[in-house]
Design brief:
Blueprint (H helix, E strand, L loop, with lengths): L1 H26 L4 H30 L7 H26 L5 H4 L2 H31 L1
Helix pairs in contact: 1-2, 1-5, 2-3, 3-5
């Protein structure tokens, strides 16, 4: 269990910087340094409070160490859904005054895409970390 949490923390740390850099390149190409730091802080918050607990729950039901195509694809897909759910929960918590129409608007679709992409990046980095760890033994 302790080793699993360390792998998830390492995956979250790498994913945090990768996602913040990618989001800055797409949304704020002129303000790289400041926005990468802001994005890293924001993604750190999201991964630590949302991503890692969701990933621990997913790992209870889908074993990431089994090497079957179905298992790997379902693990990645459920992480993408988890990233989407964490994004929706974050938006409900941070913007409680807005109506439900805001959450289904076109402007929010990019945030939902970022949430799903965050889950994808996190799960792929975690699978790569697990594979490298297996090779080292």
């Amino acid at each position: 269990m302790k080793e699993s949490i360390l792998v998830k923390l390492l995956s979250a740390f790498i994913s945090m910087f990768l996602m913040s850099f990618l989001c800055v390149i797409v949304f704020f190409p002129d303000e790289i340094i400041g926005m990468v730091l802001f994005g890293a802080i924001m993604f750190c918050f999201l991964y630590l409070l949302g991503g890692i607990p969701v990933s621990l729950i997913i790992s209870k039901y889908i074993n990431p160490n089994r090497r079957t195509l179905w298992n790997t694809c379902s693990y990645v897909f459920v992480h993408m859904l988890g990233g989407l759910v964490v994004t929706i929960i974050f938006m409900f918590v941070s913007e409680p005054d807005h109506s439900i129409e805001m959450f289904v608007s076109e402007d929010m679709m990019s945030f939902y895409g970022i949430g799903a992409m965050s889950g994808l990046v996190f799960s792929l980095i975690e699978l790569i970390t697990l594979k490298l760890r297996r090779k080292s033994y």
